[in-house]
From TrEMBL:
Keyword Nuclease appears in the UniProt entry: no
Name of the protein: Acetyl-coenzyme A carboxylase carboxyl transferase subunit beta
Domain of life from the UniProt record: Bacteria
Top class in the EC scheme: transferase
The species this protein was found in: [Eubacterium] hominis
Gene (name only): accD
Function: Component of the acetyl coenzyme A carboxylase (ACC) complex. Biotin carboxylase (BC) catalyzes the carboxylation of biotin on its carrier protein (BCCP) and then the CO(2) group is transferred by the transcarboxylase to acetyl-CoA to form malonyl-CoA.
C4-type zinc finger span: 37-59
Domain CoA carboxyltransferase N-terminal span(s) in chain numbering: 33-294
UniProt-annotated binding residues for Zn(2+): C37, C40, C56, C59
EC code: 2.1.3.15
Keyword Nucleotide-binding assigned: yes
């Protein structure tokens, strides 16, 4: 088997043979060798996706990545210091199956919750970061997610640092009831203090950003960026269509549609994300310095 997959050409040949011989005996294919794009359904070598920053080479759709992979792509090597890594619910709400699912996700993802926060550098520019991870409860916002994001915002405010939050979420976490909804107000209030201090907040939307997260800190950035083709909205498309009794455009709630309507400032491809964030941070630093001199 090792000899079979020794070169990339061998792997491509195997893929072709697999498509041509479905009627024959199944081929023993290792796990994670191929990946099917959720957008265009085309299949790619997982190795090719890795070298392309996990962006589909066929349609350009940004495949979801873990919070730690996002940190690897964005933050300077060795500069990230994580906050509140072990923070978790001490008393889990009595919702059927919730505690078991939390424990299972913590084991499979290596995370305690759906967001990773900390301080790091982007080409030497120091900033506070919060990166949501859709592999953990679809990035839903419970009380711990809200608390970690709030703590990151408050740290940025007290240390006069710019803030960048990468969002991906299915919305508020229904298993926690009203406690999850409170996080919308709590994070928004913390951002108001950050703004009042004259500090920069960049919101970077990734697929999908919906529900309570889109209705709170995701859309409150001084500058709002988005990856291409990602879903951005509050309620689902079918719910809205049934409410307004109208047929909605095919690209409704996609990043390109939202940009056209003026709700976000720029769509940035994943390969350009670090450079664009650096340019914004540097521009803000110069502006703040000029303001001090005056």
């Amino acid at each position: 088997m090792e000899q079979l997959f020794k070169t990339r050409k061998d792997r491509l040949n195997l893929f072709k043979s697999r498509k041509q011989s479905l009627h024959k005996d199944p081929i023993d294919i290792p796990d994670n060798l191929f990946h099917s794009c959720p957008n265009c359904k085309e299949t790619s070598l997982f190795e090719d996706l890795m070298h392309n920053d996990y962006v589909c080479p066929h349609c350009g759709f940004p495949i979801k990545i873990t919070a730690h992979e996002r940190i690897r792509q964005i933050v300077d090597d060795g500069s990230f210091e994580e906050f509140n890594k072990g923070m978790h619910l001490k008393q889990v709400p009595d919702f059927p199956g919730y505690e078991d699912k939390l424990e299972r996700l913590q084991k499979t993802t290596g995370l305690k919750e759906a967001v990773v926060t900390g301080v790091g550098k982007i080409y030497g520019q120091r900033c506070v970061l919060g990166i949501m991870d859709s592999n953990f409860f679809m990035g839903s916002m419970g009380s711990i997610v809200g608390e970690k994001v709030t703590c990151a915002i408050e740290y940025a405010t007290s240390n006069r640092l710019p803030l960048i939050l990468f969002t991906t979420s299915g919305g508020a976490r229904m298993q926690e009831g009203i406690s999850s909804l409170v996080q919308m107000a709590k994070t928004s209030a913390a951002l108001k203090k950050h703004s009042d201090a004259g500090l920069l907040y960049i919101s970077y939307l990734t697929h999908p950003t919906t529900g309570g997260v889109s209705a709170s800190f995701a859309m409150l950035g001084d500058i709002i960026l988005s990856e291409p083709k990602c879903l951005i909205g509050f309620a689902g498309k079918r719910v809205i269509a049934s409410t307004v009794k109208e047929e909605l455009p095919d690209d409704f709630q996609k990043a390109e549609f939202v940009l056209e309507k003026g709700f976000i400032d720029k769509i940035v491809e994943r390969k350009d994300a670090k450079k664009v964030l650096y340019q914004i941070l540097k521009m803000h630093e110069r502006s703040a310095y000029a303001g001090k001199r005056k």
